[in-house]
Amino acid sequence: MLPFLAVLLAAVCFGTTGTAQAFGPGDASALSIGAARILIGGAVLAGVAAVVRMRRPAPPAPAPDSRSASRRVPSWLLLAIGSLGVLAYQPAFFLGTSANGVAVGTVVALGSAPIITGLLDWALHRRFPGAVWLVATVVATAGVVLISGVVGDAGGRPIDLPGLMGSVGAGASYAVYTLASKALLERGWSATTTMGSVFGLAAALSVPVLLSTDLRWLVTPAGATMALWLGLVTTAAAYLLFGWGLSRLRAATVSTLTLAEPLTATLLGTLVLGESLTGMAVAGLVVLAAGLVILAVPWRGRRARTLSAAA
User: Fold this and answer.
1) What is the C-alpha separation between 234 and 278, in angstroms, rounded?
2) In whole angstroms, what is the distance from residue 182 CA to residue 296 CA?
3) Tell me: the pLDDT tens digits for 172-197?
């Protein structure tokens, strides 16, 4: 159960992102916040990866899966694709939470990610993620729909279409960098090396993006605190846990487990930020939690297949 718990704990860290943004300066743009987050978190992850690599030699790479389309992609290109996915996720995510609120923006972004990840994983590797994943994802996504306000009214706030598209774009970006990272892990890269390389390159790419924005918010106490929390907790610490779990589980399984992020974000949005939820949205939280329980329960047959696939 440790890989499942590691991913769930990472998702809880992810879930504090929108709330941290809400307590930060109101004049900070989504693009600037996302770039600062990746610069700080990516630099820390790259440093951790460098230290681990000096102390521990890299293991021999396993034989590539002949069924996988990603085996034909050079590692440097997978690294670039993963880094661009990380970079694209940030402004898309913050655009969604700014336009539609922390709860709805996070729910839509992470609710779309498991479906996109599972379909892409199936297409690339020609392996069905499994019946347990399918049932858990359907149940959890139903909870996401109930919370998001697509059915009924989750708080009386009208849904902003550009913000909604930004959240879906964040979900797609998440799927891209998760699958790219998983492909590198399957080539023998360690979890710390993979996360450090992907996010380290994303950090380097974020520098010109950050410098092109208004940085006055970053030198305020609230802005500096928000940037450090986003970089150290929701990126560095969270992705160390995420990478360790991803190295031992299928990408589709990990993506569904991270639906604990919108669950966390919704609870924080309601309890801390005072965002209102209707009875239907509360029911959605229960349904979403049930989907995560279905996926995390160590079904004997599913667990054997998952460990075999991750080996």
Assistant:
1) 28
2) 19
3) 998 999 999 999 998 888 889 999 99
Token code pair at residue 195 = 């996360």
Residue 254 token pair: 């990990």
- Count of domains for the chain: 1
Q: How far is CA 32 from CA 24, 114, 118, 239, in A?
A: 12, 27, 31, 21
Six-digit token pair at 158? 């009208």
Report yes or no on 90 lying in a domain. Answer: yes
Show the DSSP H helices in 101-130 as ranges. Answer: 102-125
Examine residue 63 and state whether it is found in any structural domain, yes or no: no
pTM over 0.85: no
Residues 6+ apart with CB under 8 A from 222: 23, 24, 25
C-alpha to C-alpha distance for 13 and 23, rounded to whole angstroms: 16
DSSP code, position 70: G
Residue 164 lies in a domain: yes
Residue 168 to residues 73, 96, 281: CA-CA distances in angstroms? 26, 9, 19
**Could you tell me the residue range of the domain that residue 44 belongs to?**
2-54+68-310
Residue where the block lists tokens 């998983």 = 182
Amino acid letter, residue 99: A
